[in-house]
Design a protein that fits this description.
Length: 285
C-alpha cells in the first residue's frame, strides 16, 4: 500500500494531528517530539494519546515518524550540548514506547570542527548509551545535505556510525531526497546507481522511510533548501521514479515541503496519481 503523509504540527496534540492527516488525505504523518528549535518536552496527555490511538485504528493511520528536534547534536564539541542530546534521546525513546510502530528519526549531528571520525564515534556512543535490549522503537539516521560540518551526507558516514553501535538491529536510515540530491547523489539521472551504492555501503534492508522533498538547489549544493514537489531541481519525473522504485515503493513517504495544509493535500493527491499499482497486487492504493 502507498503510505504517504507529511510533516504535521504537534502543537495541539496527537488526536489533532490524526484528524489533520485524514483531512488532507494522508495515511501516515511525521511530527516533532518537541519544539524543533527548543528543548523541553511537553507533559504527556494520556487521554489525548488514547483518543488518538482509537482514531488511528479507525482511519488506518500507521507507520508514523517522530522527528527529534534540530537542537539535538550528539557530536558537538561542547559537552553540555552532547549531554542535552542524551537527555532528549532518552526522554523521546521513553515516550515513543507508548506509540508502538512509530519510528524515531534524527539528524546524526554536526561535528563542529572535531572531524568526521570523532563525530561518528560520538554519535555511536550516544546511541550505545540510550539503546537497550527490549526496546522496540526503530531509530533512523537521516541522510543529510552536508551543510557546515553535518555528518551523514555520505552513505559511508552512516555506515561508520551503524558499525559502531551494539544494538544495530534497532537502527535504520531515512532517505531525504532533497538532502541526498544536495549532497551530490544524482537521484535524477541515476537513482538505480545511488541505491546500488547505498546497498553496498549501508545495505538496503536498513532503509525504512523516505523524506520526499524537491530541492531549490542543483545537485551537490549542500545548502538544504526544500522545495514543493515538482517545482525544484529534482522535478516531478524523478520524484515519480522514487515513489515507484522497487526498493522504495513499500516504505512510508513523508513530505517536508514548504506548504500549508491545502498544499500538502494537493501534493498527496498528485502523488497518489503517480503511484503505479503493481499487477497482481490489489493492496496498493
Ligand atoms: Fe530532518
Ligand atoms: Fe528530512
Ligand atoms: Zn532538510
Amino acid at each position: 500500500m502507498f503510505r504517504i503523509g507529511c510533516q504535521i504540527s504537534s502543537a495541539r496534540g496527537y488526536l489533532a494531528m490524526g484528524r489533520e492527516a485524514v483531512k488532507i488525505g494522508a495515511n501516515t504523518f511525521q511530527f516533532f517530539t518537541r519544539n524543533p528549535r527548543g528543548g523541553r518536552v511537553k507533559a504527556l496527555d494520556r487521554a489525548d494519546l488514547d483518543a488518538y490511538l482509537e482514531f488511528a485504528a479507525e482511519h488506518g493511520l500507521a507507520d508514523l515518524l517522530a522527528h527529534a528536534p534540530y537542537t539535538l547534536n550528539p557530536c558537538s564539541a561542547k559537552e553540555e550540548v552532547r549531554e542535552f542530546a542524551l537527555q532528549v534521546l532518552r526522554e523521546d525513546l521513553e515516550r515513543l514506547a507508548l506509540l508502538p510502530g512509530t519510528m524515531y528519526n534524527f539528524h546524526p549531528g554536526s561535528h563542529t570542527g572535531q572531524g568526521t571520525a570523532v563525530g561518528t564515534a560520538q554519535i555511536a556512543a550516544a546511541l550505545n548509551s540510550v539503546l537497550s535490549e527490549g526496546q522496540t522503537t526503530i531509530v533512523l539516521l537521516e541522510t543529510m545535505a552536508g551543510k557546515g560540518t553535518e555528518i551523514g551526507s555520505s552513505f559511508a558516514e552512516l555506515a561508520a556510525i551503524i558499525a559502531q553501535v551494539e544494538q544495530a538491529d534497532l537502527l535504520g536510515v531515512c532517505l531525504d531526497t532533497c538532502h541526498v540530491h544536495e549532497a551530490g547523489y544524482d537521484i535524477c539521472a541515476n537513482l538505480d546507481a545511488v541505491l546500488g551504492e547505498f546497498d553496498r555501503t549501508v545495505g538496503l534492508e536498513r532503509l525504512r522511510a523516505v523524506h520526499l522533498n524537491d530541492s531549490r538547489n542543483p545537485a551537490g549544493a549542500r545548502k538544504d533548501r526544500h522545495e514543493k514537489i515538482g517545482q525544484g531541481q529534482i522535478g516531478l519525473e524523478a520524484i515519480a521514479h522514487v515513489i515507484n522504485h522497487p526498493a522504495l515503493r513499500d516504505l512510508p513517504f513523508f513530505l517536508e515541503t514548504p506548504n500549508d495544509a491545502a498544499g500538502y493535500a494537493e501534493e498527496i493527491r498528485m502523488l497518489r496519481e503517480l503511484y503505479e499499482p503493481q499487477p497482481g497486487r490489489e493492496d496498493q492504493l
